[in-house]
Amino acid sequence: MSRDAFYITTAIDYVNAEPHMGHAYEKVGADAMARYQRLRGKDVRFTIGTDEHGQKVAESAAALGLEPQQHVDRIAGRFQDAWKQLEISHDDFIRTTQPRHHKSVAELFTRVQSAGDLYLGDYVGWYCKFEETFWPETKLEQGNCPTCNRPVQKITERNWFFKLSKYTEPLKRHFQSNPEFILPVARRQEMMNILEEGLEDLSISRSTFQWGIPFPGHPGHVVYVWFDALINYITSAGFPDDAGSLARYWPADYHVIGKDIAKFHTIIWPAMLLSAGLPLPAHVFIHGFVLTPTGKMSKSLGNVIAPGEMAGKYGADALRYTLLREIAWGQDGVISEEILVNRYNRDLANDLGNLLHRIGTQIQKHFGGVVPPVAEGSKGPLEGELEQASREASRAAAAGYEAFAFHQALEGAWGLVRAANQYVDRAEPWKWAAGKWGDGLREENPPSAEQARVRLGTVLSVGSEALLQAATLLEPVIPATCQCIRATLGVEGRPHWDSEAPLSGRLAGKTLSLGAPLFPRLEAPARVEAAPKPAAKPPASKPAVRPPAAAPVESLGYDDFMRADLRVARVVSASRVPNADKLLQLSVSLGGAGERQVVAGIAQSYAPEELIGKQVVLVANLAPAKIRGIESHGMILAAADADGKHHVVTPDGSTPDGGRVK
Ligand code: MSP
Fold this sequence. Notes:
The protein is α/β, with parallel strands linked by helices. The longest helix is centred in the middle third of the chain and has 31 residues, at 337-367.
């Protein structure tokens, strides 16, 4: 792949549900990365799309009295509408029912077959229609799908198999020699454990329904929907016919996906590519889940948030900003209308909107709407500090974007927005405008009229330029707002990541077109009730780790103690909770029982990276609570030493993740 090309993809969404906030979160994150890379001058290809085959889709169509194709056309349209509303800047929207994709699947099959990796065998297993996944009996939980807990169907049929097992060792080697293939790196071990257990061959054809890509050379069979769907990534890059495009964009730089489909992307897909003799993507980035204050989004709970509705009500940028500002990309996080409105008022209206408004109105009032020049020698220490803040913001934002740490990129960029507001506060342009000393100066004689006007011009010019630079740093996340800021400041053309340039008056002479305030303040919506709090303890606002008890506790019956479900858990990701010195937000793995998010008060005792990979003990059946707006489900046990430093309790020896502690 040529070095200035950058290919990024998201999962292609199932068309058996309407677009929801989880889908939107993934698309917005990948879109921010695509936009950032474009700002950096990369030739970006950004692909999203819909996954349209499978039994579930055929059944939903039948229930509606529609042909499957009619049904998928309708729903794919809804996804496209939603992404338009959210300003997603994809270059390709791939649909697995498109002829180009059928052709690509057929060609990949030819290659996999030539590699000797397909064979006919008898499949006996359990199929979850909802997850479109086969499970061996040993993985079922109380007879149900271990992922979604729905009933599974027993399937016995003569099927085609892919020799997935053959790729166990090559994949292990790939993981070892490419430690950043799976990101965040904390997710890698989980996938490595699957390889260590050994892979079974995969049944990849189905003959009990027909809504799928015909299995090449085997009438009556269709390709297993996951095998078909994964191939979309190379179809979009130009496989098999467009060799130029393929050479330019493949292998992909990033596949961006959610944690529930990590195995398909880090094991099955790479094995398919190895079999077909195609290079593997550089990285698979696994993001966390969007939750609501009442827990996981689900139709039956009626708490599914429609992204289009939120974007319609508050604007796409307010939604995009909240999604990426509130949730650390690799982790789970809670979103609600209330959280969005707070972010909107606090950050977008008070800080950013206000900055444009206060500078713009003064340029209009004192300079007839034309940005004044920065006169030679009229800059002082305040401008030096603002330039320094701008350089720091630019570096912090770039580092955040590069690492998919959008919350940090935004925090970094906001450093400049805040600094620019403080600059205006400290430079006191209103005083210069009144013919008095600004900049906090207290001289006896007033400044000359010319002196005051020159300094006023410099402050407004420099302030507006800092705002323009901030608009570049924020462009990946709030593109429409940044476009509006540029247009207001009279700037044309596309922005580039050149925000380390000094503040030198490059807007001088531009005519402003100041419109209505960018983000008029909103009233807070009705509060959404959080998940029920634990009946007695711990209080939701306290960190999960408590100091040593001073007084003896009354004795506890054996049965009472056994009601506490203590589990070994492995920390898979950790980050600081913004604006909370003591709190860390952790994702911990309970092995086969999935993952939990926990907020623990150990930030003054551990750096986040020290905890990654560590086994800890989790009180797993504690009712969920919200700590600083973040869902915390469980408590991590720790003891404090004489200096108050916490030490987490950890098993003395290797024990399986999820194992009971008694
Ligand atoms: N069709 C498959 C993907 C095939 S990719 C070759 C699929 N579709 S999905 O519609 O169920 O999910 C699409 C993406 O949305 C996945 O990456 C999934 O992890 C993500 N999300 C679904 N719910 C989510 C949240 N609540 N939060 C964040 N992302 C979540 O899987």
